Amino acid sequence: MDKRRKFTDYERKTVYANGNGRCAICGKPIDFSKMTIDHKLPLSKGGTNEMGNLQPACLTCNVVKSDLTMQELVDIASQIIWHNRYLKIKYLFTKEAI
């Protein structure tokens, strides 16, 4: 397994350019100076430090994603959204019953 390492300025510029200056997770533009590098397949799950496994990310998204794959992140976000919708619907019906 590759270990986390500091990327060169050239590598950072390449990752930034490959992502068109946008966070690969939320899609918002990010300043080069504030960009973090995210591993699509986390190192903890067998990912590598090769360019094809790297994507630009804003700090917030990278922290939230942590060592999840994008699919795992989407699955968790979907569960949270559906749970919140369920709670709102439950509240509406409970409120009307009172």
Task: Please describe what this structure looks like.
The radius of gyration is 18 Å and the shape is elongated. Helix content is 46%, strand content 8%. The protein has 98 residues and is mainly α. It has two domains: 1-67, DNA Binding (I), subunit A, CATH 1.10.30.50; 68-98. It contains three helices and two strands, in the order αββαα. A two-stranded antiparallel ribbon has the order 1-2.
List the helices and strands and how they pair.
Layout: H1 9-18, E1 36-39, E2 54-57, H2 59-65, H3 70-97
Antiparallel strand pairs: 1-2
As a percent range, the share of strand residues is 5-15%
Number of strands: 2
Question: Architecture of the largest domain, CATH level 2?
Answer: Orthogonal Bundle
Mean of pLDDT: 92
Q: Please outline the major beta sheet.
A: 2 strands, antiparallel
Low-confidence stretches: none
Number of helices: 3
| CA distance, first residue to last residue | 58 Å
The CATH C-level name of the largest domain is Mainly Alpha
- Write down the secondary-structure element order: HEEHH
CATH topology grouping of the largest domain: DNA Binding (I), subunit A
Q: What is the quaternary state of this protein? A: single chain
Morphology call: elongated
The residue fraction in helices comes out at: 40-55%
The helix-and-strand class reads: mainly alpha
Radius of gyration: 18 Å
Strand order of the largest sheet: 1-2
Supply the number of structural domains: 2
Identify the notable features of this structure and list them briefly.
two-stranded antiparallel sheet; elongated; DNA Binding (I), subunit A
